[in-house]
């Protein structure tokens, strides 16, 4: 573009809550996160889960591969978050809170967060689902921006080389 350039910035930040069964594979978590994020658009700002899963190798590895922090919240903190459907008895029995994925996504995104994609379960080629995932937005923005990168047009000074 003569006299100007286009810079593409990453899409809006998304906070991904992940619930996981013991021994979940990193590949299963990554596949689920990527598929769920495709529904919401944007980029992963952080993964979040319950403290009891802070050292789960599949979650730690997925966060490392994505280049983001793995944030954790206590079961008590997660229990205080209202989620669609009220949560799961399975999660309550396993880790002490009825919601991990949705509640963790909302807490990680902060006050005023909005759930963009509710809980999804993984669909591994072999065996049962061992992971759940949900996506929240820190700003509450959604709709037209979903799945679209932000584009900023920056004019170049006269006589400068194009970007």
TrEMBL record:
<protein>
    <submittedName>
        <fullName>Cobalamin biosynthesis protein</fullName>
    </submittedName>
</protein>
<dbReference type="InterPro" id="IPR002750">
    <property type="entry name" value="CobE/GbiG_C"/>
</dbReference>
<dbReference type="InterPro" id="IPR052553">
    <property type="entry name" value="CbiG_hydrolase"/>
</dbReference>
<feature type="domain" description="CobE/GbiG C-terminal">
    <location>
        <begin position="15"/>
        <end position="136"/>
    </location>
</feature>
<dbReference type="GO" id="GO:0009236">
    <property type="term" value="P:cobalamin biosynthetic process"/>
</dbReference>
<dbReference type="Pfam" id="PF01890">
    <property type="entry name" value="CbiG_C"/>
</dbReference>
<dbReference type="InterPro" id="IPR036518">
    <property type="entry name" value="CobE/GbiG_C_sf"/>
</dbReference>
<feature type="region of interest" description="Disordered">
    <location>
        <begin position="120"/>
        <end position="163"/>
    </location>
</feature>
């Amino acid at each position: 573009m003569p006299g100007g350039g286009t810079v593409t910035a990453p899409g809006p930040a998304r906070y991904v809550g992940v619930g996981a069964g013991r021994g979940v594979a990193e590949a299963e978590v990554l596949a689920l996160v990527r598929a769920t994020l495709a529904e919401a658009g944007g980029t992963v700002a952080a993964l979040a889960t319950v403290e009891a899963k802070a050292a789960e190798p599949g979650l730690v590895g997925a966060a490392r591969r994505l280049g983001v922090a793995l944030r954790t919240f206590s079961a008590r903190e997660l229990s205080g978050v209202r989620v669609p459907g009220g949560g799961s008895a399975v999660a309550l029995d396993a880790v002490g809170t009825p919601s991990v994925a949705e509640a963790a996504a909302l807490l990680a995104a902060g006050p005023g967060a909005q759930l963009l994609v509710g809980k999804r379960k993984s669909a591994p080629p072999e065996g049962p689902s061992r992971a759940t995932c949900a996506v929240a937005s820190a700003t509450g923005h959604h709709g037209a921006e979903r799945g679209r990168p932000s584009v900023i047009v920056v004019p170049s000074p006269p006589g400068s080389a194009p970007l």
